């Protein structure tokens, strides 16, 4: 019996994607890469999806590339690191630009590409056993899966250098202090429910505006002021044309609570 490498659960606009290889701490093999890439792609234009949760089955979030698979590929005639271009890079681009809020429920270890995937989320919820390990250098590799882009933006250049070169785990409290975690909860059992609660809150919000905020931040973090202003103008034009904007403005004036539909 074949087990699905990625579980997809839908609840009231929240789609939870669960890495489902707990026996290998959710290490990422080719079937999981393909399943995750295809799932994220399908959610881009899915009106029923208004927020996404990323999580892992069992006691770890994801420990990165499946090294057993990688060792086998190293002994073959191919180019095993082509997986970066073929699998990880397309996934990173889609996940970073996904016009829906993404919440990572980081229970246990997030290492290597698994840590990189968590850092691409808009929010990260962790528990006492949560840890991040940029493990690439431990096996003689540079970073990938967007780590060189996300990590300096979250923790600064010097700390990103330390984390990538020394490849030492960063525990839960330090992760919260550095900004790797958005929120640290009291027990590991709370991580997923709290992440899904946050995702449900976001799913009930102005999701078109959230998507445009993500677009603005991507542009503003790497472009010029004029480029950021141009993106802001376009983002406001798109957001301002939604029913959510009109209805929420009217509700504010009437001193009522707005209801958002994502349109």
Question: Can you describe what's shown?
Answer:
By secondary structure, the chain is an alpha/beta fold. The protein folds into 2 domains: 6-203, 2-enoyl-CoA Hydratase, Chain A, domain 1 (Alpha-Beta Complex); 207-253. It contains 11 helices and 8 strands. The chain has helices at 30-44, 67-74, 83-97, 113-119, 147-155, 157-166, 172-178, 191-203, 207-222, 225-240, 243-253; strands at residues 6-11, 14-19, 51-56, 102-106, 109-111, 123-126, 131-133, 183-184. The strands form 2 sheets. It has a 6-stranded mixed beta sheet with strand order 1-2-3-4-6-8, sandwiched between helices. Strands 5-7 form a two-stranded parallel ribbon. A hairpin with a 2-residue loop joins β1 and β2 (14-19). α1 (30-44) packs parallel to α3, α5 (147-155) packs across α6 (157-166) and α9 runs antiparallel to α10. The protein starts with 5 loop residues before the first strand and ends in a 10-residue tail after the last helix. The relative contact order is 0.12. The mean pLDDT is 94.
Can you give the helix content as a percent range? 40-55%
CATH topology descriptor of the largest domain? 2-enoyl-CoA Hydratase, Chain A, domain 1
Q: What CATH architecture label of the largest domain applies?
A: Alpha-Beta Complex
Low-confidence stretches: none
Summed up, the domain count is 2
User: What is the CATH domain class of the largest domain?
Assistant: Alpha Beta
Structural class: alpha/beta
Order of helices and strands: EEHEHHEEHEEHHHEHHHH
- In spatial order, strands of the major sheet run 1-2-3-4-6-8
> Whole-Å distance between the termini?
42 Å
Number of helices: 11
Q: What's the shape?
A: globular
- Assigned CATH superfamily of the largest domain: 2-enoyl-CoA Hydratase, Chain A, domain 1
Radius of gyration: 19 Å
Number of strands: 8
Biggest sheet overview: 6 strands, mixed
Q: How much of the polypeptide forms β-strand, as a percent range?
A: 5-15%
Rounded mean pLDDT is 94
């Amino acid at each position: 019996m074949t087990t699905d490498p990625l579980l997809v659960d839908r609840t009231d606009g929240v789609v939870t994607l669960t890495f489902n290889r707990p026996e290998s701490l959710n290490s990422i093999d080719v079937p999981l890469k393909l399943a995750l890439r295809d799932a994220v792609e399908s959610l881009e234009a899915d009106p029923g999806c208004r927020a996404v949760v990323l999580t892992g089955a069992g006691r770890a979030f994801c420990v990165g590339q499946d090294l057993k698979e990688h060792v086998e590929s190293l002994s073959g005639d191919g180019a095993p690191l082509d997986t970066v271009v073929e699998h990880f890079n397309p996934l990173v681009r889609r996940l970073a630009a996904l016009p829906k809020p993404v919440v990572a429920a980081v229970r246990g270890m997030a290492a290597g590409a698994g840590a990189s995937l968590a850092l691409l989320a808009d929010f990260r919820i962790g528990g006492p056993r949560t840890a991040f390990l940029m493990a690439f250098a431990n096996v003689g590799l540079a970073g990938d899966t967007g780590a060189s882009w996300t990590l300096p933006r979250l923790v600064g250049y010097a700390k990103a250098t330390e984390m990538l070169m020394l490849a030492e785990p960063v525990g839960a409290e330090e992760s919260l202090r550095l900004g790797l975690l958005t929120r640290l909860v009291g027990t590991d059992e709370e991580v997923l429910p709290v992440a899904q609660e946050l995702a449900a809150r976001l799913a009930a919000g102005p999701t078109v505006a959230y998507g445009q905020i993500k677009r603005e931040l991507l542009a503003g973090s790497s472009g010029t002021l004029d480029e950021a202003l141009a993106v802001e103008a376009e983002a406001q034009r798109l957001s301002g044309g939604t029913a959510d904007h009109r209805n929420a403005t009217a509700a504010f004036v009437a001193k009522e609570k707005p209801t958002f539909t994502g349109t």
